[in-house]
Amino acid sequence: MTPAKTSAITADPWQSLQTFTDARIALGRTGVSVPLQEALKFKLAHAHARDAVYSSLDCDALMQALEIFQLPLYRLHSIASTREEYLKRPDHGRRLNTSSVTLLKEISPSPTEVAFVLADGLSATAINKHAIPVLNFCISMLKHSGISLAPITLVEQARVATGDEIGELLHARLVVVLIGERPGLTSPDSMGAYITYAPAVGLTDEARNCISNIRPEGFPYKEAADKIFYLIQEILKRQLSGVNLKDNSGEIAASV
Question: With contact defined as beta carbons under 8 Å apart, do 189 and 183 qualify?
C-alpha cells in the first residue's frame, strides 16, 4: 500500500524576524496555502478577540481590589443598557445614564486634581487584568507628590468620552480613563490610558493624551505608570492636554 503523500512546508526567508514581533509574518506555506497549524492559530486568535469584545467587567472583584487605595468608590453605567446597544450606538456609551448622573451630583465632591475612571471599552478583560497593577504604581506616586485624588469610578458599557462627564461632575482638574482597547489578533487584552485636562461634556479626541497597549507583553505596568505620572504633572503645570502638549519625557531622560 502506497503511503499518503504529505505536503512539505516551505520555509520563509523572513523567519528570523519573528523574534522581533508578534505580527503574523514568515508563516511559511504549504503549496499556495498557509500551513494548517497557522490557519488554526489565526482562528483561535480571532475567537479570543471576539470574546474580548463581549467580555464583562468583574465588578465585584475590581471594587474589592480598589478598596486598598482608601478612596471613595462608585459603580456607574452609561446610557447603553446592553452590550448590543453599546456596539451599535457608540454615542450611548459616551454619556452616563440618569441614575449615575444623579449619584455623582448627590455626593457633591470637593474639587480635586485627578480622577481615575475604569471603563470596559472594547475589552473588559484588559481592565480585569491590568487596571489594578497600573493603579498601584500611579496612585502611590500621586499621593507621595501630594496630588489630590477624586473618588474612583467603575463604569460599565463605557467609552472614553464618559470620563469627560465624570470628571466634570467630580470637579476634577483632569481625568485619567483606563479603558479596554479594541482587541487585535495578538492582543485581546490591551489597555489604554486617556488623560484629559478640564474634562467637560463635548470634548473630542484632540483634547486627550493617550498611552496605548498597556500589558506585560506591550507597555509594562511600571513604565506605563511612569508615563501617566509624567503626563499628569505636565498637564497640571501647563494647564492643557492633547495635541497642544508635547511629550518631552524622552529628552529629559536622555539629559540625566
Answer: yes
Is residue 18 in some structural domain?
A: no
Q: Where are the beta strands (DSSP E) in the chain?
A: 73-77, 112-119, 152-156, 172-180, 191-197, 208-214
pLDDT digits over 21-50, tens only? 777 777 777 877 888 787 777 788 778 778
Q: Distance of alpha carbon 106 from its chain centroid, rounded?
A: 28
Domain that holds residue 111: 59-255
pLDDT of residue 256: 47
Decide if 17 is inside a domain: no
pLDDT tens digits, residue range 217-233? 999 999 999 999 999 99
Please state the domain count of the chain. 1
Length of the chain: 256
> The pTM is what?
0.85
Composition of the chain by helix, strand, coil, percent to 5: 45, 20, 35
Q: Is 99 helix (H, G, I), strand (E, B) or coil?
A: helix
**Residue 140 placed within a domain:** yes
